[in-house]
Known about the structure:
The chain has 472 residues and is mainly β. The protein has three domains: 32 residues, no CATH class; 282 residues, Immunoglobulin-like, CATH 2.60.40.420; 126 residues, Sandwich (Immunoglobulin-like), CATH 2.60.40. Helices cover 5% and strands 41% of the residues. It is built from three helices and 31 strands. It is globular, with a radius of gyration of 22 Å. The structure holds copper (II) ion (CU). The site of copper (II) ion has 5 residues, from loops.
Amino acid sequence: MNIRIxxxxxxxxxxxxxxxxxxxxxxxxPAAPSTVNVTLTAEDKAVEIDGKTLQARVFxxxxxxxxxRVRPGDSLDVELVNQLDAPANLHFHGMHVSPxxxxxxxxxQTPPGATEHYSLQIPPDHEPGLYWYHSHIHGMSEGQVFGxxxxxxxxxxxxxxxxxxxxxxxEQYLALRDFQVQDGAIPADNIDSxxxxxxxxxxxxxxxxxxxxxxxxxxxxxxxxxxxWYDVELTGHRMWVIAEDADPVWEVWEAEHLVMPxxxxxxxxxxxxxxxxxxxxxxxYNQGTTGDQxxxxxxxxxxxxxxxxERAELPTSLIPExxxxxxxxxxxxxxxxxxKNAANEFFIDGKQFDPTRIDVxxxxxxxxxxxxxxxxxxxxxxxxxxxxxxxxxxxxxxxxARGHQDTVPVPQGGExxxxxxxxxxxxxxxxxxxxxxxxxxGMMAVVDVLNSEGQSESAPVTHGGHTPAPTG
Length: 472
Ligand SMILES: [Cu+2]
């Protein structure tokens, strides 16, 4: 399947004057990569949420941050303007790009008042789907993301992988997060992730969506919040998963409900049920003995109305399988999560995060088998930057993955075995628990992918390269 050809053809249909009427060969040429320029201004600001005016920490003046849209092959240039009174930075969660220099490098920090530039070269064969971006300052990521500093990043092209009749399906983008209020503000410190909270979709409480009976829609759902989990269901409907963590699946699967820790994304097909009103909701969720208990809650309302549409046949697969179990394993590792809950200290392999320490050094071009062992009495979502992995077993039971992923819940007192392909990017990045409170309190570690000669190509951590703050 050539995504680019399909896109050019679609563009020609819409824009017959845009140069598509030339030689027949033109239509098959790849669309010229473009540069997408985005400015993200992080600021403390009073914003309107659910009819209340609340002090929050937001991008570009709104609690719902802008959605960035790029295509495979594009360059993404972002100016991060930091108007907070604290350092800020950006991580592009799930993206398969370089972790070095001004790319997806979370070791950089933009001081208060400064502006820094990020430039991502997105590979032409990058997986399409729903990604997200967020502040990733160690020690402050929970408060910054909870305040609003996260948004969706779409790599276009997922629907091009669907069969013809549903390629033009209506798409819904749903960014899940929550907020609490203390003294007219969303709290930045001492956040109690187990306290009563209000769940929002795209910054709104209980938005209304519509579908026609029988109509197929593509829903892109992301948990872009700081700490809390969702167990998503759509009453009266099934969901067919076509991508997990923006990895299109090689086997489409039907889900009654989807567990979504922070950072998780699912892209699903939904077919409108009989006329009526339905609920997108989270079931009650128990994150563990020392973790939080989340009550059930309504997220959004879906109204099925209008003329019925004949149900389209659904795809069974979007991409060819890449089963990493067929590739040689270069190294086995055990990665152990522990915590001292009462002391608010969280550890990987007995150590709290240190940005100047290298914890793991795989070699580029190899596959490693990691067993993530959770010796705590709550679940932790394991996430690694840059390269997605394949889950091969959970608590010792073999797991037949339908695709790759970048975030996986590790059961309380249990373990998950994954295969990590360190395909092509050298350099330093991190893996961590994606409950941001845990990450901030130490549950994060550094991986440095060495070149094929076994040498590091990473620059030392400097926090440098920033524009001086304007004076006067
Ligand atoms: Cu955790």
